[in-house]
Amino acid sequence: MNRIVRLMLLAAVAFVAFSRATCGKPRPSGPAAVLKMTIKDHVRYHNMGITWDGSHYFTINGGSENHSNLNEYDGKGRFVASHDVGVDGRAIFYHPDDEELYVKVYGANLNAVDLDDETSDAELEDVFQDQNSSPGFAPDGEQIYEFSGGTVRVLDFSTGDELSSFELANHSRQDDNGLSMSIAASDKYLFTWGAGGEVLVYGLDGKYVTSFSLPKSGYGYSLSWANGMLWVAEDAGGKTEGADGYWYGYQLTGLQ
Fold first, then answer.
1. What DSSP element (H or E) covers 16?
2. Edge-to-edge, what's the strand order for the sheet holding 199-203?
3. Second label for 46, Cα 20 to 30 Å away, from 10, 11, 212, 241?
4. Rounded distance, CA 160 to CA 110, Å?
5. What is the DSSP letter of 24?
């Protein structure tokens, strides 16, 4: 009998050891942000938005129409050129269909930008409700998402018409540095700020999904989606003399 008991105990110990060896350590659950890219962005005033045209990144700053930078970088984040387009920007988007750059300005307009002659003209007028809002753009260029006062307005990019609207839960209600007025959009999710500086994730229908923290803090207005990454900027706060801000591009893991 004692021999049988000993054999049973040895079998149990072996089973536990085998289970631990095959299962390994439990993996962390939920999404995580992995830093993939950093771009130094010299601007006057504030780093507001970033977009990607398939080969180059473009950033827009805000704070003054008279001191406006639209900066261009190659695919590795190396500086190419700075364009003075005379806009006080809040967000920037490259439309894949017409291959044009668009900037949501301080105010209610969406401007089309021509880098060749460095001009900016209103494409959609009086379509935004909040002059300070920093909207997100669907990567395919079909919709614009404006976030203000807890409400997301979904606008048709071509016409500016409101297609729908919905409320978001849990978001930050602070107006400091655009925390309650900024939203980014991927092809599956919307991203906003939580009250503690975390990023909140929603479906495109506004239903809450999850949240995660970023390795580095970011300027509220700068929340952007470009080249398959979520971006935030460490703000330059450069005023008229200018200063260096830093864009951080994060690849998100744990989201389907």
1. helix 2-23
2. 184-185, 189-193, 199-203, 208-212
3. 212
4. 9
5. -
Report, in this order, helix, strand and coil percent for the chain, each rounded to 5.
Answer: 10, 45, 40
Q: What is the CA radius of gyration of the chain?
A: 23
Quick check: is 208 in a domain?
A: yes
Note the pLDDT tens digit of each residue in 174-225.
888 899 999 999 999 999 999 999 999 999 999 999 999 999 879 999 999 9
Count the domains in the chain: 1
| Range(s) of the domain holding residue 225 | 31-253
> Does residue 220 fall inside a structural domain?
yes
| Whole-number average pLDDT of the chain | 90
N- to C-terminal Cα separation, the chain: 54
- Domain contains 174: yes
Tokens found for residue 155:
């606008």
CATH number at residue 78: 2.120.10.30
**pTM of this prediction?**
0.88
Determine the Cα–Cα distance for residues 157 and 143; give it in Å rounded to an integer: 5
- Residue 213: partners with Cβ closer than 8 Å, 6 or more residues away: 33, 197, 198, 199
Residues 6+ apart with CB under 8 A from 31: 201, 210, 212, 252, 253, 254, 255
| Tokens of residue 111, six digits | 């401007």
CA 194 to chain centre: 14
Q: Is residue 18 one of the residues assigned to a domain?
A: no
Report how far residue 192's alpha carbon sits from residue 9's, in angstroms, rounded to the nearest whole number.
Answer: 54
Maximum CA pair distance of the chain? 94
